[in-house]
Give the backbone structure.
Amino acid sequence: MKKLILVRHAKAEILQPGIPDVDRILCERGKNDAVKIANQLYSTEITPNDVICSPAKRAVETATVFAEQYGIERLIKEEFLYGDYNFADIKQLLIEEVPLADTVLIVGHNPNLSYIIAKLTGNFNQHLPTSAVAVLDFDVEKWDDLQPSTGVLEMFFYPDK
């Protein structure tokens, strides 16, 4: 069994003139929500082997909260997670970067995360708020065997839910 934990970054500061979007950091609510949601995931006893994130500061900050919660020292930053990507990109990332990991946590952005969850499960059509966590299970031995519509949504939660 393989497990993917997909997390939308926590709430960020409003975009300000002169500050690139990639440099936006978490606002106070975002910081609090990230801790809250990381604690909630930790309480489920689901433990990621690796944490991968977009290079955007808000995603790195969110991923760092999860990594610290689980004692994971290395964050894998993937440039493409900040832009437009698809199922094939995620699959290739898993195959190349974390082939032996059974459980991987990825922090990214919407609308791509919603699309990926829908593609992997075949039936996800919910709003993905900031700090949302979707845990997907796959009945496969290797990431290379990952196929669309084969994931089962084990959990879906966010700070206000």
Summary: The beta strands are 2-8, 50-53, 75-77, 103-108, 133-138, 152-157. The chain has a mean pLDDT of 96.
